[in-house]
Amino acid sequence: MCSPSTGTVEDFFSALFCSGRLGTCSRGTSLVEGLQMTQTFAHEPVMVDEVVSLFGSVPSGVVVDGTAGGGGHAAALLDAHAHLGVLALDRDPDAVAACELRLARFGRRAVVRGATFDRMEEVVRETASDPASWPQSSASSTAVSGVLLDLGVSSPQLDRPERGFSYRSSAPLDMRMDGSGGPSAADLVNTATVEELSALFVANGEGRFARRIARAVVLARPVTTTSELAGIVAGAVPAPARRRGHPARRVFQALRIAVNDELGQLSRSLPVAMHLLAPTGRLVVISYHSGEDRLVKAAFAEAVAGGCTCPPGLPCVCGAMPEHDLVFRGSRKASAAEVARNHRAESARLRAIQRRPAA
Description:
Shape: globular
CATH topology of the largest domain: Rossmann fold
CATH superfamily of the largest domain: Vaccinia Virus protein VP39
Radius of gyration: 21 Å
């Protein structure tokens, strides 16, 4: 889906959700409305060349794009690799509608569903059980050739003030990616204790002034708009600290992550995604802040170890049977040229893991 979650992951089935396969939008979207939707959800996918390259060697079948957004990565994969189909998921109804329009030209090679990516296995099984719905390029199997997770928020979500993600404009304090279900950022800000808010801000890197900001927020309640919250945060931080960028950036990011349970979804989804992979299938994850990247790094390390309990650096004698290997060590970053073109790619970190070939 997504561009960086650093200010610079998705229940659904709302009136904006187009159920079923491509081209079956129940809203009766006209061509003009469709063009408007794709324009308002315009988004440049991050590290698209790297993603396309990494999926080039996977077996014929289906790649699950768990955070499809406007369909940028999915379209690039389908254009580059004739042996692949895509099952695209997103929790944002606007993204689902835009993705359906963008991928319509691929026919049955692309299927779009409205869902959070932690429901990936359920959606794969439901879709694969109906041969008419499963992408044409693959037999209906619940083993997939790849999974892509591009975490965080997309440019349209950040850039549209009414979504309530940005501290740069005034809007209702919402931040829900699905736009409807669950508590909003305003609910969290106006009910959490000083201790709870402070811990949330600390976890997202706002260590030095977390408690001061939390106390100021509680004293200013009720807080209902993004501009109110941004002003409260700025007022709680000493002037010298405000010169290093807007102090509300990390606060807004922390609230958005909490409201959408982004880290919880990620931790639940990583083992599921690796389990779904067919032999030599790959999971590729792009993260945008340290909390996400730590989860991905730890999950990949555990998978590669295969449950080994032997001391680090010594040969394995415990009988562990790893099923996955890292595609490359560490993480990759966006090129300087891409960062110059799209500053939201600067914080992107890409990691990839592959299921071992069948014995």
